[in-house]
Amino acid sequence: MATFSSHDRLTNLQQLRSQTFDLIIIGGGITGAGIALDAASRGLRTALVEKVDFAFGTSSRSTKLIHGGLRYLKQLEFGLVKEVGSERAIVHGLAPHLVVPEKMLLPLSEKRGLGYWLTSIGLKIYDWLAGVKAEDRRRMLTRVQTLRYEPLLKDEDIRGGAIYAEYRTDDARLTVEIMKQAAREGAIIANYVLVKDFVYENNVVAGVVAAPAGGDEFTIKGKFVVSAAGPWVDELREINRSKQGKRLHLTKGVHIVLPRQRLPVKQAIYFDVEDGRMIFAIPRGRITYVGTTDTNYTGDKDNVRTTREDANYLISAVNATFPSVQLKVSDIESSWAGLRPLIHEEGKSASELSRKDEIFESSTGLISIAGGKLTGYRKMAERVVNLVARKHGGNLGNSKTSGIRLGSNPFNGVKDVAKFAATLKSQAAPLSLSEHQISYLVENYGGEAKLVIEQALRSGDQGDQALILAELEYCVHNEMVYSLSDFFVRRTGLIFFDIARVQRWKELIATRCGTLLGWSSERTAQELGGVEEWIRNATTFS
């Protein structure tokens, strides 16, 4: 079994240097992770490299929902709704601690949207296409019932509403858990490894030239190479001299994070705004987050930021829908901005572009996949590995990932998760953690949250200091943390959901992380500076 500890990263790099693989995957987002798990579980010798950190790009900056794409019903993309709708239930079963049921309120207005009866019919079709269980099927509400569910709504606009089912997740955590499972299946994985070029034999791609952070370039040899690099897919196609025909169209999606007391919605809500877009407001512990935008993007893919215009747009949308809250941009605690790597279609706006995935194959054999949705990652991976399997020959069988539950101690369902949470709360009693902290630990680390608590109890520290130091210890030893930002942004999500906690503990965590990973004082200062830049980018808008 391959390892996923920060301390074993050099061992993984050595294996990448010395072995020949059946499949090399470029890109450590949700799609690359899904391909790695599917391929390794079918017996392919699998390698994956990521140029920054796992989930660095799109896969840590989505709306953080495993949802069925209700808005795609408007675009008559019935096949997409059916596929991703069905996948929701599968992914929930694979990680019920991380993919959590969330009832969504959809208020209906006379002035915008499809109206009451068309929405009722549409949701019924949605439930049928997605195979929604009877207890989770849409329930239509009267005007009075809708306002009882959410009193903050602008009451004169409301005709009625609907309740329907979605699933909340943490996209980066899901990506990391799939990566860890792929490693358990034998995949050799490393972050902070940039692919600079391809290796060819008889004009066919037979490997990549890799440049690891802090190390010398080397070659990874493989029979097949798949690019799952998200927004960077076309850059790799250019290196391969195969960027012809279809191309990517990048759009930007922004989310803002507000204190729960400033937007105290009673439950998750999906509402129309005047320009025809639909926006989510989702309560999550001590905060409510709102998004998303959908605008064309041609800037720096490595540094996507929320602008003042983005922030004003979302604040205005919230104030128009919930007029009593009177939010200001200064109420925003944090934000994130990410890119959607969609397939370009002439004459279509950012919001009109299809979210379908497509596979491109170059004349030299490079396989690239782009488009798609977080929810559909498993089926996207299956299609890619099926293609590789046909080319590889032999009997690799069908995908097994619908039955591979995530985590070293996977749960059997929501009741199992609730039972574990109660046990964890009792175990953690000496630390005096809040209900929110217990929920956060279970959703983040699943069954391995007990390892975090055990470490915190052993440390002799108290309360939140004990908890965050124990989290760091766990993530370094089990989740290939290489930089301070890995921990604060993608392993814990604190930069988005509890930025005050980052501010409070960043120096302590930088020092301890430096000790655990053997950093020099200069490296520690550099890493701390990187986190401070993340804080600035998340909290300031220009």
Describe the fold and architecture.
The protein has 542 residues and is of the alpha+beta class. It has 3 domains: 6-58 and 172-247 and 354-403, FAD/NAD(P)-binding domain; 89-168 and 249-343, D-Amino Acid Oxidase, Chain A, domain 2, CATH 3.30.9.10; 414-539, Helicase, Ruva Protein, domain 3. It is built from 18 helices and 18 strands. It has helices spanning 9-18, 30-41, 70-74, 78-94, 116-130, 143-149, 171-184, 233-239, 308-321, 377-392, 414-427, 435-445, 449-459, 463-478, 484-491, 494-497, 499-517, 521-539; strands spanning 20-26, 46-49, 65-66, 100-109, 139-141, 158-168, 188-190, 193-201, 204-212, 218-227, 248-259, 268-272, 278-284, 287-291, 295-296, 334-343, 358-361, 367-370. Strands 3, 4, 5, 6, 11, 12, 13, 14, 15 and 16 form a 10-stranded mixed beta sheet that branches. Strand 9 (204-212) and strand 10 (218-227) form a beta hairpin. The longest helix is centred in the C-terminal third of the chain and has 19 residues, at 499-517. It is globular, with a radius of gyration of 23 Å. The termini are far apart.
Helical segment count: 18
Q: What's the shape?
A: globular
The CATH topology assignment of the largest domain is FAD/NAD(P)-binding domain
Structural class: alpha+beta
Total strands: the figure is 18
Number of domains: 3
Mean pLDDT value: 91
The CATH class of the largest domain is: Alpha Beta
Largest sheet: 10 strands, mixed
Q: Could you list the spans in which at least 5 consecutive residues all have pLDDT below 50?
A: none
Strand content: 15-25%
CATH superfamily of the largest domain: FAD/NAD(P)-binding domain
Helix content: 40-55%
Report Rg: 23 Å
Q: Identify the CATH architecture of the largest domain.
A: 3-Layer(bba) Sandwich
What is the terminal-to-terminal distance? 47 Å
